[in-house]
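W.,

You were right to be curious about this one. When I first looked at the sequence I had no strong expectations either way, so I just let the prediction run and decided to look at it fresh. Below is the sequence, 267 residues in total, followed by the output.
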Amino acid sequence: MINTDNIELRKFNKDIADYSDPQNYTILWLKAGFKKIQIDFDKFAPSTNSIYFINPKRKICLFFDANPEGWILRFSNEYFKTHIRGNLMIKDADIFASISKNPKIILSPKIGNRIHSIAEMIDELIGSEIPNKETAIASLFRTLIIYCDSKCNIRLSKEKNINDVQIVKAFKDMVAQYYTNTHRVSEYAEMLNISSKYLTQVVKNVLGVTPKSVIQEQLIIQARGELKFTNKSIKEIAFNLGFTDPFHFSNYFKKKIGTSPSEYRTL
């Protein structure tokens, strides 16, 4: 593993399955040798030469059918804002769009080789003592993002201005921080000093979903994790997620997932 500042690059190890990271953003480049990928609770077969953009706090498991080719790039939100986003018109509200979606692009072999070369240069720079290497690493990182631009709709479109993107980013950060305290769109709008109507309009314009959907995604993913990976009672989970009534939580969960919390726990 190679580290510098708030960015990390490493190759895959077929003896390691869990690549989750509770704090950092993750970009996975899966060139070949991958049998299956699991992100949270969804398992699927990855495509050759595919890149995934994954938010923090997601469970990432990889299953290999050969020696894996590719790499994993992790970086903090602070690094992305300081070194990358400030220099490009990147709509990070799209690239790391929602909590449950996994933005992905499929690369042609030619572009895949270029991405591999960029990764090798970043790898070399991280391990070097070259003057101004941080500037060079950030430049290569931006080049990688630009290669993904047309495929992933990362560029800020004329219809979606920078202010809208900043509002959505702030809203998503607030949901991640306060979803156990409030489930109301109106309260998030109040914290942002805007109306609920305007927040709904902006979120739908940028993400294509409602603010309520973003809150619900956060609640359901957390609930599924608590049910599967802890021994907490359903009552305790409900209260921890901000539900005052465990029966309300159970009905809410069943409506979204199709099974009750107790049934889901045994699946």
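Here's what jumped out at me. DSSP finds eleven helices and seven strands in the chain. And, maybe more interesting for your project: The radius of gyration is 20 Å.

Coffee later to discuss?

I.
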